[in-house]
Here is the input.
Amino acid sequence: MASSSSNLISLKTSDGTVFKVERALAKTMKTVQAIIEEADANIYMIPIHNVFSHHMDMIIDYYKLSVAGKSKEFSVEKLDNDELKDFLLAVHYLNMEDLFEVLTQAVADRLEKKSVGYVRKYFGIENDFTPEEYAAIRKKNDWAFKGDDIEPEEDEEKQEE
Amino acid sequence: MKKFVKVVETNEEVKVNNNSYIPDDFSFSILSKLPLKSLKRFGCVSKSWSLLFENPHFMNMLRNHFLSNNHRSNYGVTLLLLYDNDLPVHYTLYLLSDDRFENRVKLDLPPPIQEVVSTLYILSSTSINGILCLGNLRSRGMVSIFRAVLWNPATAEYMFIPPSPDEDVPPYRDPVCLFDGFGYDHVRDDYKLIRYIIFFDLTDDDEDVPWEDRSYDPLLEIYSLRNNSWRILDIDMRDIAHCAYDQPQDGAAVYMDGVCHWWANNDLFNLTGILVSYDFSNEVLFTTPMLLDMVESCDFIVNRRLVVLNESIALISNYSKPTTFHISILGELGVKESWIKLFIVGPVPSIKCPIGFGKKGICFKQNNDELVWIDINTQIIDEIGVRAEGYSFPMGIYKESLLSIGGINN
Here is the structure.
């Protein structure tokens, strides 16, 4: 049972796991902090939808590292691009500024050389250009598609020599 | 399918289902951290993304992020070279660790340079692995003599560079250096100088000179510290001829990642120009023209100057009436379509011209010759606390290292 004088806040993730976290860590989650402030004296358990236990594990890792002044050592290398996106969405929901900046930079680094097609899928965006419009804008920015390390577009791969 | 409304200011909705809906703010936070080339490519993702560069909210985020990287602690310390008119005229070099003049530290110039009564400047405006290359121009009659010295302020070691080939010319050929630079060749672990020399004939009547000796072809000279010698580069220089360059002593060269860059104006009105670049490792000279789209028809351009901003080449175009400075970033070297205008500073009627780059970004000289930093994003003007009379001189970046110059030149 958590009381308002306790140093620990109970957070229940989407998959039903309960995490008891330090008040200081809960403070970095503006969403949670808002709920605590709005609530009455005692708050038993705060449900955090959209956040899974593996996300909380990483959040706690990051928190421990940053308290020790080692936030640069935090790495999301082991996550694939979609796992990273889900983690970022969870952190976005919780409204954690610093970790959000770290993760958006990590996503940007992963997307830097990707193709237009990949990015559309990643963000769930429809191509609303007509074929003529796309051809025109593609041609205008042709230089941005060139480079050995840039992922070729799917529909253009066959044209590559 | 769960639906949850967040208790935060933005009132965003995040639906968790198979296709996560991503709000604009979220995608902007990622996009604003991408390099310009990626952003231009991803403009083909959708119509709204093609308009990113016209979205003020996004551009604010992009600019903020672009500038935030400039404050890294390992960026180096600002160097200020001041010319003092008081007799005997002399130069003084200062380190401004917090970019304010009152906390300056004076660096003692190498002894042979200390009493110099002629033009002194810093080639490439930056130290390379702790080594500065100082250039000195002295007049001998009607001709200008160039001497350079490599110097490590941390160890006080210095070494004069032998005279360059263009000095060995008959008196009727007057060599003029249009641009020069100091750089590092990472393939050979060598420190080099480059100079572009053109020749003017000195005398009106040189009938005594045989026709075959009358060659006024420009040349590119390279000095190598490892070999301690100069040689002439044999490459096509047509692209860089017939252009107007800022004088070397005004700190015209910018250096980044083993490549030196200069801005060359193509026409009398400073409307069009090209970026000239020299890669010290590949020994390749190449140019990046400027798009004519960048020409604003209404204003009169006073000057253009290069700086390095956040590891990118940036061109500052100085417009008058009203005094504004347009800053365009080069997305990719060699690609003229990749010049992207990112910032406009002004109107700032009190400002005369940009001086160079320092740790805080761009330093400007006011009409009253006071030097100031301008935060490009907030447009806040911060005084450095010093006046710089006379022509614009180089401001540089210095990062200390104990590298031995003699150790490289066996």
User: Anything to note?
Assistant: The longest strand of chain A covers residues 8-13.
